Amino acid sequence: MILTADGTFTVFHPLYGEPYHSVTAGALTECLEKFLYPSGILQRAKEKREIRILDIGFGLGYNVAVAIKHLRDENRHLQIYVLSFEKELMENPPLLPEPYGYYQRLLWENLPAFEKEGISFKLLLGDARKKITEVSSFEAHVVFHDAFSPLKNPELWTLQFLLQVKRLMDIEGVWISYTSSLAVRKSLWLLGFNLQTTASVGRRRGGTKAGLSIPTLLSPQEMHKLLHSPFSVPLEDHTLEDDPSLILTRYNLRVEHLKA
Ligand code: SAM
Question: Mind listing the domains of the chain with CATH numbers?
Answer without folding.
Answer: 2-259 (3.40.50.150)
